[in-house]
Amino acid sequence: MNPSSRDLGAGPVPAGSPSGVEITLEVNGVEKRMQVAPWTTLLDLLREYLALTGTKKGCDHGQCGACTVLVNGTRINSCLTLAVMKDGAKVTTIEGLASGETLHPLQQAFLEHDAFQCGYCTPGQICSAQGLINEGKARTLDDIRELMSGNLCRCGAYTNILAAIEQAMRASGKGPAR
Ligand code: FES
Ligand code: FES
Predict the structure, then answer these.
(1) pTM, whole model, 2 decimals?
(2) Most buried among 1, 13, 21, 132, by the most CB within 10 A?
């Protein structure tokens, strides 16, 4: 591929460009107004143009969950989502979960349970877990396993991830039955 053609196609375009679409997103509580090429994925927008590199690109094909973020509180694979489709939405990435120096309960629980090894999948796992909690459907540990099955961990930290999510759910008063 001609490298310059990829540069032109991957992200925001200059204001006034005929191929640019103006969108506004609230990202981690901050309004962002941008001109983007219509084919820009939300993942590329976050990583390449807003420098929010906590969200990871694993497969770029909707298969690993590393790119999971919350849009209006619902978890999505940002690699499969065009940024223009989410005009006006509230996006929360891993960078937006903590309150200042205080970690989000899921972040704290992942630390306490050693629920990561390389950590590459961790931001997606944590955003997905928050989405799971928002959905309120998990009643058992097996439900958590099933509802987290779209998030893959190459390191095999699943047991500790499950324990961390269970702890955070219990702390929020929404813990699963055993
Ligand atoms: S990078 Fe989006 S699902 Fe793998
Ligand atoms: S901790 Fe390495 S991929 Fe999950």
Answers:
(1) 0.90
(2) 132
